[in-house]
Design a protein that fits this description.
The protein has 171 residues and is mainly α. It has one domain (1-171). It is built from nine helices and two strands. The chain has a two-stranded antiparallel sheet with strand order 1-2.
């Protein structure tokens, strides 16, 4: 559980934005939406992240945040959840280092979008023990069924006529 004072939350936000993520335009877009501390950052949902924008160079037009910047926020939120799930929560926000974040985001097990954060114990590859569920995405029964269905109907003979069934079953 995070227990920070307002000033600690702002300092943590500044550290993450300036030192870890290193994207000033991202920080500007978040601050323009009133997100100025780490607690507000951690409560962002995907719709809010996708709607972030910043002012253009003249300051007259609102420009949507680039896909890369939006994804950087999502990856950081995944990193936060990963650290909490593996028993290494971020308690000292000012000690979070860009090298650790980059090791997480460049790890092949976490690069693909949609891979859930493992809930078991473990650490990132190269640092000792690897999580056993890191590469195994969890699918609902409906998703598993859809993934198992053959998509090309020409691979299957029509089984409307009973005389074709026996030959098809033997093959």
């Amino acid at each position: 559980m995070i227990r920070l004072t307002r000033s600690q939350g702002i300092a943590a936000f500044d550290h993450i934005m300036d030192e870890v993520l290193g994207r000033p335009i991202l920080k500007t877009a978040l601050e323009s939406e009133g997100i100025q501390d780490i607690c507000a950052l951690l409560t962002l949902d995907e719709e809010t992240i996708d709607a972030l924008s910043h002012s253009d160079e003249e300051g007259t037009t609102s420009v949507p945040l680039s896909r890369g910047d939006r994804n950087l926020i999502k990856v950081f939120l995944g990193y936060y959840r990963y650290r909490a799930a593996t028993g290494n929560p971020m308690e000292d926000w000012l000690s979070v280092e860009v090298e650790d974040f980059n090791e997480f985001r460049l790890n092949p097990d976490f690069i693909r979008v949609g891979i859930p954060v493992p809930t078991g114990s473990g650490t990132l590859p190269g640092s000792g023990v690897t999580p056993s569920a890191a590469g195994a995405p969890t699918y609902s029964p409906a998703e598993s069924f859809r993934r198992g269905i053959k998509r090309d109907p020409s691979l299957f003979p029509e089984l409307k006529d009973e005389r074709h069934n026996d030959a098809w079953h033997r093959s």
